[in-house]
Amino acid sequence: MDRELTSFLLCAFVFFITATSQQDNVCSRPELFDNIEMDGIQRYFNPGEELVLSCKQGYTPLSGPRNIVCAARGQWTKTKLKCLPKLCPYPDVLSNGALEYEDTTYQSVINYTCHEGYIMTGASSAVCQANGTWSSPVPECTAVSCGPAPIPEYGMIIYDRRIRGSSTDYGVTGTYRCLPPYVVTGNPRTKCTASGTWTAMPTCRVVTCPPPKNIDNGFVSSDEDREYDFMEAVKYGCHGHYVLEGSMQVVCQENGEWSEKPSCKAPCSVDIARGRILYNEKKVWIEDFNPNRVLHRETVSVYCKDTVRSCGYAVPTQCIDGNITIPPCFKEPSAVNYTLKSGSLPSEIQAC
Protein backbone atom coordinates (compact mmCIF):
# COMPACT_ATOMS: atom_id res chain seq x y z
CA MET A 1 0.00 0.00 0.00
CA ASP A 2 2.79 2.46 0.80
CA ARG A 3 4.49 1.61 -2.50
CA GLU A 4 1.33 2.34 -4.54
CA LEU A 5 0.81 5.72 -2.79
CA THR A 6 4.38 6.73 -3.47
CA SER A 7 4.06 5.89 -7.19
CA PHE A 8 0.85 7.97 -7.51
CA LEU A 9 2.41 11.04 -5.94
CA LEU A 10 5.46 10.78 -8.13
CA CYS A 11 3.37 10.66 -11.33
CA ALA A 12 1.35 13.68 -10.29
CA PHE A 13 4.53 15.70 -9.63
CA VAL A 14 5.98 14.82 -13.04
CA PHE A 15 2.70 15.87 -14.77
CA PHE A 16 2.72 19.22 -12.90
CA ILE A 17 6.30 19.95 -13.90
CA THR A 18 5.54 19.14 -17.54
CA ALA A 19 2.39 21.28 -17.65
CA THR A 20 4.12 24.22 -15.98
CA SER A 21 7.02 24.02 -18.39
CA GLN A 22 4.65 24.03 -21.36
CA GLN A 23 2.72 27.10 -20.00
CA ASP A 24 5.95 29.10 -19.62
CA ASN A 25 6.55 28.75 -23.41
CA VAL A 26 3.07 30.06 -24.42
CA CYS A 27 2.81 33.59 -25.94
CA SER A 28 0.12 35.94 -24.65
CA ARG A 29 -1.80 38.20 -27.01
CA PRO A 30 0.77 40.80 -28.16
CA GLU A 31 0.61 44.46 -27.19
CA LEU A 32 0.62 46.39 -30.45
CA PHE A 33 1.67 49.93 -31.20
CA ASP A 34 -0.89 52.62 -32.00
CA ASN A 35 -2.73 52.18 -35.28
CA ILE A 36 -1.63 48.49 -35.67
CA GLU A 37 -4.17 45.69 -35.25
CA MET A 38 -4.58 41.89 -35.59
CA ASP A 39 -7.51 39.65 -36.40
CA GLY A 40 -9.30 37.35 -33.98
CA ILE A 41 -9.75 37.21 -30.21
CA GLN A 42 -7.32 34.38 -29.32
CA ARG A 43 -5.48 35.08 -26.03
CA TYR A 44 -2.66 32.50 -26.00
CA PHE A 45 -0.44 31.14 -28.74
CA ASN A 46 1.92 28.18 -28.84
CA PRO A 47 5.51 28.48 -29.95
CA GLY A 48 5.75 28.57 -33.74
CA GLU A 49 2.32 30.13 -34.24
CA GLU A 50 2.31 33.13 -36.57
CA LEU A 51 0.24 36.34 -36.48
CA VAL A 52 -0.47 38.68 -39.42
CA LEU A 53 -0.53 42.36 -38.45
CA SER A 54 -2.32 45.13 -40.34
CA CYS A 55 -2.92 48.86 -40.10
CA LYS A 56 -6.13 50.22 -38.70
CA GLN A 57 -8.60 51.84 -41.04
CA GLY A 58 -7.33 55.24 -42.19
CA TYR A 59 -3.66 54.31 -41.86
CA THR A 60 -1.12 53.12 -44.42
CA PRO A 61 1.73 50.58 -43.77
CA LEU A 62 5.16 52.11 -44.21
CA SER A 63 7.57 49.21 -43.63
CA GLY A 64 7.49 45.55 -42.60
CA PRO A 65 7.53 42.71 -41.96
CA ARG A 66 3.85 42.38 -41.14
CA ASN A 67 4.15 38.88 -39.54
CA ILE A 68 5.29 38.02 -36.02
CA VAL A 69 6.01 34.53 -34.62
CA CYS A 70 5.65 33.13 -31.10
CA ALA A 71 9.20 32.05 -30.16
CA ALA A 72 10.11 28.98 -28.04
CA ARG A 73 10.64 31.09 -24.93
CA GLY A 74 7.13 32.61 -25.07
CA GLN A 75 8.11 35.90 -26.71
CA TRP A 76 7.00 37.37 -30.01
CA THR A 77 9.49 38.25 -32.69
CA LYS A 78 10.04 41.96 -33.35
CA THR A 79 8.39 43.97 -36.17
CA LYS A 80 9.28 47.28 -37.76
CA LEU A 81 5.81 47.81 -39.16
CA LYS A 82 4.69 51.46 -38.95
CA CYS A 83 1.26 52.81 -39.82
CA LEU A 84 0.98 56.40 -40.91
CA PRO A 85 -2.32 58.29 -41.23
CA LYS A 86 -3.60 58.70 -44.77
CA LEU A 87 -3.41 62.14 -46.38
CA CYS A 88 -6.26 64.06 -47.98
CA PRO A 89 -5.53 66.59 -50.78
CA TYR A 90 -5.13 70.23 -49.86
CA PRO A 91 -8.54 71.95 -49.99
CA ASP A 92 -9.43 74.43 -52.71
CA VAL A 93 -9.57 78.15 -51.95
CA LEU A 94 -12.96 79.39 -50.74
CA SER A 95 -13.92 82.51 -52.72
CA ASN A 96 -15.37 85.28 -50.54
CA GLY A 97 -14.65 83.22 -47.45
CA ALA A 98 -11.96 81.64 -45.29
CA LEU A 99 -10.98 78.14 -44.15
CA GLU A 100 -9.16 76.96 -41.03
CA TYR A 101 -7.33 73.66 -40.56
CA GLU A 102 -4.16 72.38 -38.91
CA ASP A 103 -3.42 69.33 -41.06
CA THR A 104 -4.77 67.25 -43.93
CA THR A 105 -4.22 63.82 -42.34
CA TYR A 106 -6.90 61.26 -41.49
CA GLN A 107 -9.58 62.64 -39.11
CA SER A 108 -8.34 66.25 -39.55
CA VAL A 109 -11.14 68.84 -39.75
CA ILE A 110 -11.56 71.92 -41.99
CA ASN A 111 -13.90 74.70 -40.86
CA TYR A 112 -15.33 77.06 -43.47
CA THR A 113 -16.66 80.61 -42.93
CA CYS A 114 -17.98 83.22 -45.36
CA HIS A 115 -17.07 86.89 -45.29
CA GLU A 116 -19.65 89.36 -44.01
CA GLY A 117 -22.37 89.86 -46.58
CA TYR A 118 -22.07 86.35 -48.03
CA ILE A 119 -24.19 83.23 -47.42
CA MET A 120 -22.77 79.70 -47.34
CA THR A 121 -24.18 76.99 -49.58
CA GLY A 122 -22.92 73.57 -48.50
CA ALA A 123 -21.36 72.06 -45.36
CA SER A 124 -19.51 74.38 -43.00
CA SER A 125 -16.90 71.70 -42.16
CA ALA A 126 -15.27 68.60 -43.66
CA VAL A 127 -13.38 65.63 -42.17
CA CYS A 128 -10.50 63.74 -43.79
CA GLN A 129 -11.85 60.17 -44.24
CA ALA A 130 -10.13 56.78 -44.11
CA ASN A 131 -10.10 56.57 -47.92
CA GLY A 132 -8.09 59.82 -48.22
CA THR A 133 -11.00 62.02 -49.35
CA TRP A 134 -12.85 64.85 -47.61
CA SER A 135 -16.31 64.13 -46.26
CA SER A 136 -17.84 67.04 -48.19
CA PRO A 137 -16.79 69.37 -51.04
CA VAL A 138 -15.78 73.01 -50.56
CA PRO A 139 -18.94 75.10 -50.07
CA GLU A 140 -19.80 78.30 -51.97
CA CYS A 141 -20.15 81.81 -50.54
CA THR A 142 -22.70 83.84 -52.50
CA ALA A 143 -23.32 87.53 -51.98
CA VAL A 144 -26.37 88.66 -50.05
CA SER A 145 -28.91 90.37 -52.29
CA CYS A 146 -31.19 93.18 -51.13
CA GLY A 147 -33.23 93.83 -54.25
CA PRO A 148 -33.93 97.42 -55.35
CA ALA A 149 -33.86 100.08 -52.61
CA PRO A 150 -37.29 101.41 -51.57
CA ILE A 151 -38.14 104.86 -52.91
CA PRO A 152 -40.02 107.43 -50.80
CA GLU A 153 -42.93 109.33 -52.31
CA TYR A 154 -41.68 112.36 -54.28
CA GLY A 155 -38.15 111.00 -54.00
CA MET A 156 -35.46 109.15 -55.90
CA ILE A 157 -32.21 107.33 -55.17
CA ILE A 158 -28.82 107.69 -56.81
CA TYR A 159 -26.69 104.55 -56.43
CA ASP A 160 -22.96 104.97 -55.98
CA ARG A 161 -22.30 102.47 -58.74
CA ARG A 162 -24.19 101.14 -61.73
CA ILE A 163 -26.88 98.58 -60.88
CA ARG A 164 -27.79 95.90 -63.38
CA GLY A 165 -30.93 93.83 -63.16
CA SER A 166 -33.37 93.89 -60.27
CA SER A 167 -31.01 92.94 -57.45
CA THR A 168 -28.29 94.74 -55.52
CA ASP A 169 -25.43 93.05 -53.72
CA TYR A 170 -24.32 93.54 -50.14
CA GLY A 171 -22.38 96.75 -49.59
CA VAL A 172 -24.03 98.77 -52.36
CA THR A 173 -24.79 102.31 -51.17
CA GLY A 174 -26.88 105.17 -52.45
CA THR A 175 -28.12 108.69 -51.71
CA TYR A 176 -31.75 109.77 -51.57
CA ARG A 177 -32.93 112.98 -53.22
CA CYS A 178 -36.35 114.59 -53.14
CA LEU A 179 -38.03 116.53 -55.91
CA PRO A 180 -38.44 120.26 -55.11
CA PRO A 181 -40.20 121.64 -53.12
CA TYR A 182 -39.68 118.44 -51.06
CA VAL A 183 -36.57 117.81 -48.98
CA VAL A 184 -35.12 114.70 -47.33
CA THR A 185 -36.07 114.14 -43.69
CA GLY A 186 -33.75 111.60 -42.11
CA ASN A 187 -30.45 110.10 -43.18
CA PRO A 188 -30.10 110.53 -46.97
CA ARG A 189 -27.58 107.68 -47.19
CA THR A 190 -28.62 104.02 -47.43
CA LYS A 191 -26.79 100.69 -47.69
CA CYS A 192 -27.55 97.06 -48.51
CA THR A 193 -26.74 95.25 -45.24
CA ALA A 194 -25.50 91.73 -44.51
CA SER A 195 -29.04 90.74 -43.47
CA GLY A 196 -30.33 91.41 -46.99
CA THR A 197 -32.23 94.58 -46.07
CA TRP A 198 -31.66 98.29 -46.68
CA THR A 199 -31.01 100.76 -43.89
CA ALA A 200 -33.90 103.04 -42.92
CA MET A 201 -35.48 105.01 -45.75
CA PRO A 202 -36.00 108.77 -45.19
CA THR A 203 -39.15 110.68 -46.14
CA CYS A 204 -39.76 113.70 -48.36
CA ARG A 205 -41.48 116.76 -46.90
CA VAL A 206 -42.44 120.16 -48.35
CA VAL A 207 -40.24 123.12 -47.39
CA THR A 208 -41.05 126.78 -48.06
CA CYS A 209 -39.41 130.09 -47.16
CA PRO A 210 -41.14 133.38 -46.24
CA PRO A 211 -41.05 136.35 -48.65
CA PRO A 212 -37.44 137.65 -48.87
CA LYS A 213 -36.64 140.86 -46.99
CA ASN A 214 -35.03 143.86 -48.61
CA ILE A 215 -31.53 145.11 -47.74
CA ASP A 216 -30.34 148.61 -46.84
CA ASN A 217 -29.46 150.74 -49.86
CA GLY A 218 -30.50 147.91 -52.14
CA PHE A 219 -33.43 146.09 -53.71
CA VAL A 220 -34.68 142.52 -54.33
CA SER A 221 -35.63 141.23 -57.78
CA SER A 222 -39.02 139.96 -56.65
CA ASP A 223 -41.53 141.74 -54.44
CA GLU A 224 -44.21 139.01 -54.50
CA ASP A 225 -45.77 138.57 -51.07
CA ARG A 226 -45.90 134.75 -51.08
CA GLU A 227 -44.18 131.62 -49.79
CA TYR A 228 -41.22 130.46 -51.85
CA ASP A 229 -40.51 126.77 -52.48
CA PHE A 230 -37.32 124.95 -51.61
CA MET A 231 -34.53 125.81 -54.10
CA GLU A 232 -36.35 128.88 -55.45
CA ALA A 233 -34.00 131.86 -55.82
CA VAL A 234 -34.18 135.66 -55.90
CA LYS A 235 -31.51 138.27 -56.71
CA TYR A 236 -30.38 141.44 -54.96
CA GLY A 237 -28.88 144.67 -56.24
CA CYS A 238 -27.63 148.02 -54.81
CA HIS A 239 -28.65 151.60 -55.45
CA GLY A 240 -26.32 154.24 -56.88
CA HIS A 241 -22.63 153.80 -56.11
CA TYR A 242 -23.15 151.25 -53.38
CA VAL A 243 -21.30 148.00 -53.98
CA LEU A 244 -22.90 144.57 -53.45
CA GLU A 245 -20.86 142.35 -51.13
CA GLY A 246 -21.78 138.68 -51.00
CA SER A 247 -23.72 136.49 -53.39
CA MET A 248 -26.14 138.30 -55.65
CA GLN A 249 -28.49 135.30 -55.55
CA VAL A 250 -30.07 133.79 -52.45
CA VAL A 251 -31.79 130.39 -52.37
CA CYS A 252 -34.58 128.92 -50.22
CA GLN A 253 -32.83 126.21 -48.19
CA GLU A 254 -34.08 122.89 -46.83
CA ASN A 255 -34.31 124.36 -43.31
CA GLY A 256 -36.96 126.84 -44.49
CA GLU A 257 -34.59 129.81 -44.39
CA TRP A 258 -32.94 131.86 -47.12
CA SER A 259 -29.23 131.53 -47.74
CA GLU A 260 -27.14 134.46 -46.49
CA LYS A 261 -28.24 137.81 -47.98
CA PRO A 262 -25.66 140.20 -49.43
CA SER A 263 -25.18 143.79 -48.22
CA CYS A 264 -24.64 147.13 -49.96
CA LYS A 265 -21.44 148.93 -48.99
CA ALA A 266 -21.08 152.72 -49.19
CA PRO A 267 -18.43 154.60 -51.22
CA CYS A 268 -15.78 156.84 -49.56
CA SER A 269 -14.43 160.35 -50.12
CA VAL A 270 -10.74 161.22 -49.72
CA ASP A 271 -10.74 163.62 -46.80
CA ILE A 272 -7.80 165.91 -47.64
CA ALA A 273 -7.95 169.55 -48.79
CA ARG A 274 -4.54 169.88 -50.44
CA GLY A 275 -2.32 167.32 -52.09
CA ARG A 276 -2.03 164.87 -54.92
CA ILE A 277 -3.35 161.30 -54.88
CA LEU A 278 -2.78 158.16 -56.92
CA TYR A 279 -6.04 156.59 -58.14
CA ASN A 280 -6.43 153.94 -60.83
CA GLU A 281 -2.68 154.32 -61.57
CA LYS A 282 -3.05 158.04 -62.30
CA LYS A 283 -1.83 161.03 -60.30
CA VAL A 284 -4.67 163.45 -59.61
CA TRP A 285 -4.69 166.76 -57.70
CA ILE A 286 -7.37 166.56 -55.04
CA GLU A 287 -9.29 169.54 -56.39
CA ASP A 288 -9.46 167.79 -59.77
CA PHE A 289 -10.70 164.55 -58.21
CA ASN A 290 -14.34 165.13 -59.08
CA PRO A 291 -16.47 163.53 -57.91
CA ASN A 292 -14.47 162.80 -54.77
CA ARG A 293 -15.56 159.17 -54.61
CA VAL A 294 -13.78 155.86 -54.06
CA LEU A 295 -15.93 152.72 -54.22
CA HIS A 296 -16.01 150.06 -51.51
CA ARG A 297 -12.86 147.88 -51.60
CA GLU A 298 -11.11 150.25 -54.00
CA THR A 299 -7.65 151.58 -53.12
CA VAL A 300 -6.29 155.15 -53.31
CA SER A 301 -2.78 156.32 -52.35
CA VAL A 302 -1.50 159.52 -50.74
CA TYR A 303 2.13 160.61 -50.76
CA CYS A 304 4.48 160.79 -47.80
CA LYS A 305 8.02 162.14 -47.56
CA ASP A 306 11.20 160.42 -46.39
CA THR A 307 12.94 163.42 -44.83
CA VAL A 308 16.24 161.58 -44.38
CA ARG A 309 16.57 160.69 -48.05
CA SER A 310 14.49 163.65 -49.31
CA CYS A 311 12.29 161.47 -51.48
CA GLY A 312 8.58 160.77 -51.75
CA TYR A 313 6.58 157.50 -51.74
CA ALA A 314 2.94 156.48 -52.20
CA VAL A 315 1.06 154.85 -49.31
CA PRO A 316 -2.17 153.00 -50.23
CA THR A 317 -5.36 153.03 -48.19
CA GLN A 318 -8.60 151.16 -48.84
CA CYS A 319 -12.24 152.22 -48.76
CA ILE A 320 -14.27 149.99 -46.45
CA ASP A 321 -18.04 150.69 -46.39
CA GLY A 322 -17.80 154.50 -46.42
CA ASN A 323 -14.66 154.73 -44.27
CA ILE A 324 -11.17 155.49 -45.48
CA THR A 325 -8.19 156.16 -43.21
CA ILE A 326 -5.55 158.65 -44.26
CA PRO A 327 -2.10 157.25 -43.38
CA PRO A 328 -0.49 159.17 -40.49
CA CYS A 329 2.70 159.80 -42.50
CA PHE A 330 0.76 162.11 -44.82
CA LYS A 331 1.33 165.77 -43.96
CA GLU A 332 -1.06 168.15 -45.61
CA PRO A 333 0.94 171.15 -47.00
CA SER A 334 0.10 174.72 -46.16
CA ALA A 335 -1.82 176.78 -48.65
CA VAL A 336 1.37 178.75 -49.54
CA ASN A 337 3.49 175.67 -50.18
CA TYR A 338 0.65 173.98 -52.04
CA THR A 339 0.12 177.02 -54.28
CA LEU A 340 3.62 178.47 -54.70
CA LYS A 341 5.93 175.52 -53.98
CA SER A 342 3.99 172.52 -55.29
CA GLY A 343 7.17 171.16 -56.82
CA SER A 344 8.51 170.47 -53.33
CA LEU A 345 5.57 168.21 -52.35
CA PRO A 346 6.24 164.49 -51.74
CA SER A 347 4.24 163.59 -54.84
CA GLU A 348 6.46 165.78 -57.05
CA ILE A 349 9.99 165.19 -55.76
CA GLN A 350 12.16 162.18 -56.59
CA ALA A 351 10.49 158.86 -55.73
CA CYS A 352 12.13 156.74 -53.05
Secondary-structure map:
Layout: H1 2-24, E1 27-28, E2 36-38, E3 44-45, E4 50-55, E5 59-61, E6 67-69, E7 83-85, E8 97-100, E9 109-114, E10 118-121, E11 125-127, E12 140-143, E13 155-159, E14 173-178, E15 182-185, E16 189-191, E17 203-206, E18 208-209, E19 218-220, E20 228-229, E21 233-238, E22 243-245, E23 249-251, E24 263-265, E25 276-279, E26 282-285, E27 299-306, E28 311-318, H2 335-340
Concise account of the structure shown:
InterPro entries: Compl-Cell_Adhes-Reg, Sushi/SCR/CCP_sf, Sushi_2, Sushi_SCR_CCP_dom. The chain has helices spanning 2-24, 335-340; strands spanning 27-28, 36-38, 44-45, 50-55, 59-61, 67-69, 83-85, 97-100, 109-114, 118-121, 125-127, 140-143, 155-159, 173-178, 182-185, 189-191, 203-206, 208-209, 218-220, 228-229, 233-238, 243-245, 249-251, 263-265, 276-279, 282-285, 299-306, 311-318. With 352 residues, it is mostly beta strands.
Account of the protein in words:
The protein has 352 residues and is mainly beta. It is 8% helix and 32% strand. It folds into 5 domains: 2-85, Complement Module, domain 1, CATH 2.10.70.10; 97-143, Complement Module, domain 1, CATH 2.10.70; 155-206, Ribbon (Complement Module, domain 1), CATH 2.10.70.10; 208-265, Complement Module, domain 1; 276-344, Complement Module, domain 1. The protein has helices at 2-24, 335-340, and strands spanning 27-28, 36-38, 44-45, 50-55, 59-61, 67-69, 83-85, 97-100, 109-114, 118-121, 125-127, 140-143, 155-159, 173-178, 182-185, 189-191, 203-206, 208-209, 218-220, 228-229, 233-238, 243-245, 249-251, 263-265, 276-279, 282-285, 299-306, 311-318. A 4-stranded antiparallel beta sheet has the order 26-25-27-28, with no helix packed on it. It has a 3-stranded antiparallel beta sheet with strand order 2-4-6, with no helix packed on it. The model is unreliable at 1-22 (pLDDT under 50). Disulfide bonds join 27-70, 114-141, 209-252. Residues 25-85, 86-143, 144-206, 207-266 form the Sushi domain. It holds the Pfam family Sushi.
